[in-house]
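Why show two proteins at once? Because comparison is the fastest way to build intuition. When a single record is shown, students tend to memorize it. When two are placed side by side, the eye starts asking what differs. So, the first record is below.
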Amino acid sequence: MKRINLTLAAGLAVLMLAGCGSASKKELPPMELEKFTAEVELERSWKRNIGVGQGELYNNLQPALDGLTLYAADANGRVVSMDRDTGKVNWQVKLKEPLSGAVGAGGGRVMLGTLNGAVITLDESDGSELWRVQVSSEVLAPPQTNGDIVVVQTQDDKLVALDIGTGEQRWMYESSLPVLTVRGHSTPVVSLYRVYAGLASGRVVALDASNGIPLWEQRVAQPQGRSELERMVDIDGHLLLDDQTLYAATYQGNLVALDAESGNIRWQRPASSHGGPGAGFGSVYLSKADGTVEAYDQNRATPLWTNEQLLRRQLTAPVAFNSYVAVADYEGYLHLLAQTDGRLVGRVRVDSKGVRVPPIARSGTLYVYGNSGDLAAYQLR
């Protein structure tokens, strides 16, 4: 049977319905934002436009930080290097390729994936192209590197390792795809010796970084239901490696904590999420598919709090920021929740066309990339 791939332009409505219950039921509108007394204020320190932003397709073009430099790209192939403190442009280039997987940075390289299945690496210092290589299908997640290899996860669920210097293929790992998947992939986690990846089948795999040999594979969600839609358990949010624990969340499945060495499940809780988990302050945070934000004890999975004020607002993955948890939504609002109990403490509108990719928190600054192409840095006032 031919595999079907949902684009979220048409598919997200279906998925949100599935996350809230039966698709035969009337869809509820996004929760209206309630007024509250702000306890903290976010002040914008700079803003920079990055072309057309996410473009017309349901792209998730995530900026990347490497040291003091911030990199971002738009759907039409514009790539910009900026000073993270001031937003001043170091260089920018326009590639003749529509981008769908961006941005990875490290090892002196800026790495991008295209809608046409090419992997492109640029020199971090000036944006000059070093090499480009064709892979089996489109690249929807940022390529990642450990300084030796560049690892790409393709839409047909292959993992490909390329030599960082030449682009020559070192190894490839293939997995079986379900009939129906969400358009997108989690971003691989690449360490010096291992590569971790979440698959559309609801499995997490650990590979030897030197040769691609599987070290362990763990199913973190079991497909259930009669229809292919009900049986979707994609891992589309990013994986999170924190010390020796690997966290993953699936659609219509579970939030799990895995031992990174063995793949054994340390704990799991039922959850459905399109984004990956966040961690900080001894807690794990998750934006669920229905817009609920939850916090769990990092060691025992004990529920700590739940916030249901942002239901059906298509939230980004949560990010720990100072003493708060930051999420953004489909209308472009950036929300701050208290780490202790999940209450709303701050809000600012970033982009009227929405925010799809999670903010980046670093050194007291939140970097937020809106769908229209505006990239802004915020700090607590």
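Second record. Ask yourself what differs from the first in the token line.
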Amino acid sequence: MSGQPIAFSSICPAGSTPYTVQPGDTLFFIAQRFGTTVNAILALNPQITNPSLIFPGQVLCVPSAAPPPPPITCPPGTTPYTVQPGDTLFFIAQRFGTTVSAILAANPQITNPSLIFPGQVLCVPSAPPPGICPPGSTAYTVQPGDTLFFIAQRFGTTVTAILALNPQITNPDLIFPGQVICVPSR
């Protein structure tokens, strides 16, 4: 051998489509995502000798009889979030200052709260809900690159004052684009 990786070219038969395995994927998760079964995927991929052993970057053929799911349109008061490897609903809820129950209510397609996938788009309620900021404050949606310090400067206030209005922020260094927070009004 020359030490080069072996190139695997996957030409999928009619009625199937190629899928590149992502970190965290299992055949069960892929089957659920595509509305098929593990056995149907195995039938299209005879190179899989151990169904428990697939690798990120591996290209599999999956049945494509079902049309792909429609793009996610999030309702007002929520923001779309793409699940990252290692995410759980609990971590996403913490990140956005909401609850797992609120995320589940906004995403009725989730039938098993322990089963979310990297690349899956969820609608995450923005905390606090619109119109819930106390008098003397206003809702602000965190933008990419924002920090509490920069937001405080922009609104002529302090980080401490912002934190007092947002008890859901447990780590002042951890805010995310799309997150809605209350800031003191000028």
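One difference worth noting in the second protein: Residues 137 and 183 are 5 Å apart (CA to CA).
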